[in-house]
Amino acid sequence: xxxxxxxxxxxxxxxxxxxxxxxxxxxxxxxxxxxxxxxxxxxxxxxxxxxxxxxxxxxxxxxxxxxxxxxxxxxxxxxxxxxxxxxxxxxxxxxxxxxxxxxxxxxxxxxxxxxxxxxxxxxxxxxxxxxxxxxxxxxxxxxxxxxxxxxxxxx
Length: 155
Description:
This protein has about 160 residues and is α+β, with helices and mostly antiparallel strands. The protein has helices at about 10-20, 25-30, 35-50, 60-65, 80-90, 120-130, and strands at about 70-75, 95-100, 110-115, 135-140.
């Protein structure tokens, strides 16, 4: 499938929706100085082409419950394509894993884990992560505070 490049109107739509996905077609059209029909058609195309994956609500984590965030850095004992894929597939199934990154350098993977407290993280390490094959060692980095959290990509 040949996906055309984003033009300025597409980028404008995506930038506005990243800041507030609750904007109506009418509001988007007014802000972009376009008529409603082309804005509607562009949003539909951006969804179909996969630029827009979903519309979600971002929750205030601290209002939901106190959270414990850790970034374990994981070294695997094997680096074959099958082992790397298996690890990614397995950790992606754990609801505690919010993000998973395959890295260059001294670390094979970095995860973002969100749990209620240190005990829950300890249980996660022992019962889930340590049960996976090819885990060499894990170095955990614990979040003390968060200075910035943004979800909008720069277009």
